[in-house]
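TICKET: design request
STATUS: open
ATTACHED STRUCTURE:
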């Protein structure tokens, strides 16, 4: 066939079109290959992401076959994924249990039929994993035949966390219930306010404190425990605590159970919740604090009165108290307590004033004293100071870490001790130099002390006394030296009376050698007894002459007494004349007197009255002693008689600020010289008024016992010691030199005694120093 030139271009065009189509197909195939590669890579990446994801997809087809990665098999304890769902449970006990497989199959079939999703949790046999399964109908793109897609999640950690949170929640609920019960049972009032500061919750103690019916009533009526103070209510204070976000604590008074009590109220803000509050009753603590402060002030006031220096330091070694003797002892300046001076600073100040011992290394010595604060037991020291003062120092540690420092000046005591030693030596030397024989016996009867003349006086060997023998043994040696050995019993009685009975006793004894000894027992203040022995052989010869001379003196004294008694008229007449003329001058007989002259006349009248009274007392006393006192006895009602005496001294009793009680039977009567007995009782009553201080009391009682009339005058006055009472009863006596008169306590008491004894009665005094006096008058 002949090819025409017309076909050549057509053939070329066809070849070109074929070549272009081939190139297009090649390019399209290349793009599809690249797209397939990209899809394959994406599928691999997605498959890897699914493999590494926290969930595993399990596809269950309608015929029960399953598709799942191998990781799902490892989760349920199998080596490989089985082909069917029912094969997830193995006979060897691995995988899932039959019940779990049955439950899963039931959920899957329901989902395949109804497209209803499901959730379930299962735990493989022998595994600690917990799997959460969530199933739904698979998308037709995944499986068009109505398969179920189940996602499996490893729920192990989440379940453990949920279990832990559940336990914590249960524990929190239990704690909350216990806390609520604790708050309800708390003995202190507690409450809770909301953000609006209104009461929301109160406990039982709060309800009882405000006296409400119930907690609901308190919340409904908003009954506050604390009333408004300083213009601020309890809600306003709680709002202030909420604004500050800090608790507010205050001490105030509140009414609790119908009683005012001191309470400590605390408002505690709870972030985002409200305000909690509680009130603690501190009334007893405040009372104890007040008592402690009062006790401390009383103690410090008492310490200020002591002569011993006392200082107290706290646990930081700062001085908190020091009394005045302590300041004087260490020459401390005023204000050291207020400045809270430290212990070491106090020592430095005392060292500068020369009030501590001289030491070579003062800093080390001061540091050593600082260890007193850590001691468990008190320490005692003796400090000799440069000025010759001797201090006894006691450091008493306190339980709180503080220290009490006691400083006592023993200088005088040491001087007294030295003086005592000197006195003892002097006493021994004095005993040995006395002409009397002396011996001191203890209360148990043994011989304690004697001088050299004691064994010589009794004629016994001095070696017999070296062992301080008992009195019985010593008396056995003395008995051999007596003219009458039976008289040794009197010597023993004298020793016993001086040591045990505390009585003086004196006797005379004849010795076998013809000597005469007089011995006496004297009780000593220390409880011992002193036996003095004196050889009176030579003095007996002059005794008779002295007795005769004494009789002559007694007769002369009686003559003088009778003379004074007979001179009563001679004494009274001049005094009466002087008093009469003074009265005439006062009445203006000699003309008007100037004021100064009237004062002189008044002084003369007063002096005459006092002198007349004293003269009468002296004369009556002299007459009574001489037995010449005339008595004119009449029958006298005792109570009216005493009332008259008291009425005469009413102004003096009122002026002295005293009270007087008179008790007795108004029917009792006695036969006495009314005037003389009135003077005697008046003297005793005047003495009681003069010696009883203001606001004192005097009691006069009348009694009759066993036919004897008793009148007792008791006062709450100064009282008298035994020595003072003896001097008061003596009145006026001749002085020791015999050249004058010695006045003791006036004539009132001796005169009263003489007048009462003239009536055949007795006058008895019972008095103690600063404890008053009781005078008892006994009349027949």
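STATUS: resolved
RESOLUTION: sequence designed for all positions
ATTACHED SEQUENCE:
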């Amino acid at each position: 066939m002949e090819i025409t030139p017309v076909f050549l271009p057509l053939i070329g065009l066809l070849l070109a079109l074929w070549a272009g189509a081939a190139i297009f197909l090649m390019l399209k195939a290349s793009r599809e290959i690249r797209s397939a590669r990209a899809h394959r890579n994406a599928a691999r990446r997605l498959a890897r992401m699914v493999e590494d994801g926290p969930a595993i997809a399990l596809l269950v087809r309608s015929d029960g076959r399953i598709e799942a990665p191998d990781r799902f098999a490892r989760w349920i304890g199998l080596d490989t994924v089985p082909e069917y769902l029912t094969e997830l449970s193995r006979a060897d006990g691995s995988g899932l249990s039959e019940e779990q497989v049955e439950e899963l199959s039931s959920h899957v079939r329901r989902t395949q039929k109804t497209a209803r999703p499901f959730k379930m949790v299962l735990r493989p046999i022998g595994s600690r994993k917990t799997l959460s399964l969530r199933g739904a109908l698979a998308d037709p793109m995944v499986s068009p035949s109505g398969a179920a897609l189940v996602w499996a999640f490893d729920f192990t950690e989440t379940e453990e966390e949920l279990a832990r949170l559940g336990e914590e929640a249960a524990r929190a609920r239990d704690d909350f219930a216990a806390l609520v019960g604790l708050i309800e049972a708390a003995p202190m009032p507690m409450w809770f306010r909301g953000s609006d500061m209104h009461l929301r919750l109160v406990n039982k103690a709060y309800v009882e404190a405000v006296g409400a019916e119930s907690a609901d009533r308190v919340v409904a009526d908003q009954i506050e425990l604390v009333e408004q103070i300083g213009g601020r209510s309890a809600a306003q204070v709680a709002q202030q605590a909420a604004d500050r976000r800090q608790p507010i604590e205050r001490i105030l008074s509140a009414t609790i159970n119908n009683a005012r009590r001191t309470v400590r109220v605390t408002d505690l803000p709870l972030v985002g919740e409200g305000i909690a509050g509680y009130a603690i009753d501190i009334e007893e603590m405040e009372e104890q604090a007040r008592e402690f402060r009062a006790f401390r002030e009383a103690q410090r006031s008492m310490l200020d009165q002591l002569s011993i220096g006392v200082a107290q330091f706290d646990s930081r070694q700062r001085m908190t108290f020091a009394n005045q003797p302590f300041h004087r002892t260490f020459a401390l300046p005023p204000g050291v307590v207020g400045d809270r001076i430290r212990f070491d600073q106090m020592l430095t100040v005392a060292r500068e004033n020369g009030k501590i011992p001289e030491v070579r290394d003062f800093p080390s010595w001061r540091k050593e004293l600082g260890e007193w604060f850590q001691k468990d037991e008190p320490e005692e020291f003796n400090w000799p100071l440069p000025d010759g003062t001797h201090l006894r120092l006691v450091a008493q540690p306190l339980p709180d870490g503080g220290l009490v420092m006691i400083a006592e000046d023993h200088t005088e005591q040491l001087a007294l001790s030295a003086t005592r030693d000197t006195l003892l030596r002097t006493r021994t030397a004095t005993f040995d130099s006395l002409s009397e024989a002396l011996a001191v016996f203890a209360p148990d009867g043994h011989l304690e002390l004697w001088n050299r003349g004691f064994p010589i006086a009794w004629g016994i060997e001095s070696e017999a006394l070296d062992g301080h023998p008992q009195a019985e043994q010593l008396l056995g040696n003395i008995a051999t030296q007596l003219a009458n050995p039976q008289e040794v019993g009197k010597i023993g009685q004298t020793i016993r009376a001086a040591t045990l009975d505390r009585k003086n006793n004196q006797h005379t004894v004849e010795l076998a050698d013809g000597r005469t000894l007089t011995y006496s027992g004297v009780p000593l203040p220390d409880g011992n007894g002193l036996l003095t022995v004196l050889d009176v052989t030579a003095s007996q010869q002059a005794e008779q002459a002295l007795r005769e001379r004494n009789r002559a003196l007694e007769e002369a004294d009686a003559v003088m007494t009778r003379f004074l008694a007979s001179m009563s008229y001679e004494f009274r007449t001049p005094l009466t004349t002087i008093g009469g003329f003074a009265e005439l001058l006062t009445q203006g007989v000699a003309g008007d007197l100037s004021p100064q002259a009237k004062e002189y006349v008044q002084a003369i009248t007063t002096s005459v009255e006092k002198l007349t009274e004293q003269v009468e007392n002296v004369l009556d006393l002299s007459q009574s002693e001489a037995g010449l006192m005339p008595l004119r006895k009449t029958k006298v009602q005792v109570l009216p008689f005493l009332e008259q005496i008291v009425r005469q001294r009413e102004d003096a009793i009122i002026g002295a600020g005293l009270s007087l009680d008179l008790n007795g039977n108004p029917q009792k009567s006695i036969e006495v010289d009314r005037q003389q007995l009135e003077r005697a009782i008046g003297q005793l009553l005047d003495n009681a008024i003069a010696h009883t201080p203001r606001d004192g009391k005097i009691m006069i009682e009348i009694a009759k016992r066993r036919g004897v009339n008793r009148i007792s005058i008791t006062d709450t006055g100064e009282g008298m010691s035994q020595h003072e009472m003896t001097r008061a009863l003596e009145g006026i006596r001749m002085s020791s030199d015999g050249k004058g008169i010695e006045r003791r306590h006036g004539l009132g008491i001796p005169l009263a005694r003489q007048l009462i004894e003239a009536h055949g009665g007795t006058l008895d005094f019972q008095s103690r120093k600063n404890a008053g006096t009781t005078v008892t008058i006994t009349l027949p």
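CLOSING REMARK: The first strand starts at residue 55 and ends at 60. Confidence is low (pLDDT under 50) at residues 737-745.
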